[in-house]
Amino acid sequence: MAAPGEPAPAVTATVMTTNGGHRSALNFPDYRRSVALKYVKRGYTFLMSYVLTIALVPLAGMLLLELVNMHRTGELTRLLSVAKQTDLTFNLVTVIATIGALMGVVISYYILRTRPVYLVDFQVYRAPDSWMATYTRFMAGSRKCGRFTDEALDFQEKIMTRSGLGQETYLPPGLMHYASMANHHVNGSTGTPTSRAVQVVPPECTMENARKEFEMVVFPIIEELLQRTGVHPKQIGILVLNCSLFNPTPSLTAMIINKFKMRSSILSYNLAGMGCSASPISIDLAKQLLQLHPSSYALVVSTENITQNWYFGNDRDKLLPNCLFRVGGAAILLSNRRRDAWRSKYELMHTVRTHLGAKDEAYSCIFQMEDQERNIGVRLTKELFAVAGEALKINVTTLGPLVLPLSEQLLFFFNLVARKVFGYRGKPYIPDFKLAFDKVCIHTGGRAVIDEIERQLQLTNDMVEPSRAALYRYGNVSSASIWYVLAYLESFNGMRRGDRIWQMGFGSGFKCNSAVWRANRNFKCLHQAWEGFNLEEMRAHLASLPNHHNKKGS
Predict the structure, then answer these.
(1) Is the pLDDT at 554 greater than 50, yes or no?
(2) Per the similarity annotation, which family is this (predicted)?
């Protein structure tokens, strides 16, 4: 780390390139070096949109106090007595105007105020043990499919052992390669193999098996969520689903509506191609819809489908997703009904979305395409870290005015005035975001990504460890990853009333999106997804990896 008063060093991350397998250091730009004023202005623009509503509250209080004071001194009584005997006086006109203004303020407040958005509860998916993809099982399947060269196999094995993923992540049956039927998972109640048709060699990446994967991941978590919250499927007024790479017809939302027999007037939205940052986008869309439809429930589903999106070629920049992406999904129930506040876990405070798609290097840094042999895969370019750093900078500087305490904002403001007005040449003051949030949920895009965000935002290890745990236990489960991190926090740390939680996702486009929640009550609940998790085993595994953040030079 840089000494106090010295400029922060550029952060680097080492990755494998496609040019002969040589290593090169890619810069993750340090957002602390400068702050773009236009993004700070954007944050304050968001904040100012609430000013009118906030200003009405003290105005109404002042008008009410004036009426109370006139009543206490007996002036109202005298005015009424005079009004019965004479024409209206100036003071009586003042009274009527004050009452009218007070009524106008109250009515305006109720018209302008936004409806609260509560997170009633959520559920994340835990696959059966038969889907488990240990390192050995993963590599055995890759070899048996006969599609990879020796160099590609060596590359996958090297990435797997250094990725930060553990031995208990999950892959769908369509990609699990079995040498014999003895390895099939047996249903305990019927004694018959489950998903027998797809557990074969070579893998069967068919539409049917992709649908089965979706049904086996999404249907159980929705059913469990609705049962636990006591909400009937026909009470759901809004359904928002995001899944980037699998979008059949009828849509995935139609599959859910058909399965749970939801009402015909439901507003359903199927978001495709939005990448790993899509869950905050879905939450933001549901929030806006809940402002328009009073007394409604919104169901948000975030998942990714692996079966039809495995890369069977040998380009290294397309093999990385094979090593990192795993099965997962999350279902979230939102409500704008004030009577749900007492039982809801959180209230949504802010959503901030950043999209760099106008820049060619950002647009193309994560790109689904064919290789020379017509194998479809998702390419990750060497510009990815630079683009992610820029997106993080914009999103953080926009979010700052909404969440930072006043003391940090004043320090930033005075530093800005000193540099812009008085020519002070010192470095910009970067606010401490640890003062704005109690807990952080970072998208589990990879070990290097989590490490560099920890360094960039100067977060503590305790704030980042839940994200490392989610990567270790479940891998990169795309947009659902931030919910696995939140489930970890609820299971092991618990929540206190007023805790502020920051969910942060990165994804193709390129996008960086944030959602900020506030805990409504004190609670601690163990999610099934985290039952039996060995935290010390994870810590020992990460400590043994090369270039782990704890081993980096200071």
Answers:
(1) no
(2) Belongs to the thiolase-like superfamily. Chalcone/stilbene synthases family.
